[in-house]
User: What shape does this take?
Amino acid sequence: MSTEPLFQPLAGPTTTVAVTFNGRPLQVPVASNVAAALLAAGVRRFRNSPVSGDGRAPYCMMGVCFECLLKIDGTPNRQSCLVPLRAGMAICTQDSLPELLESTDDSALALAQAQVAGAHHGI
Assistant: This one.
């Protein structure tokens, strides 16, 4: 099932700034935060779900849902809806939890994976 996006580009001329997104140069409209700028530039996938692998994008735009997590200027797990946009930012999608996995020993990781596999998601 597909629906029309809820976020639509603003009409009229827009001032843009240069950032990199996944290593590629991207001109994004000047906006109050990174998430709004990327959405306005047409970006639709910000990260992958660590459980299902499905693409995720901003939902609440106020820092409550954590769906907009990105790696920004080398720092992972940034809520892009709370990060002010500035020219020259290096922004990357977040496709895994590398820092968590690197710092976890094998037994704790196996336990966490078993708990996720057995968990019921949703209501």
Observations:
- The CA atoms of residues 2 and 61 lie 21 Å apart.
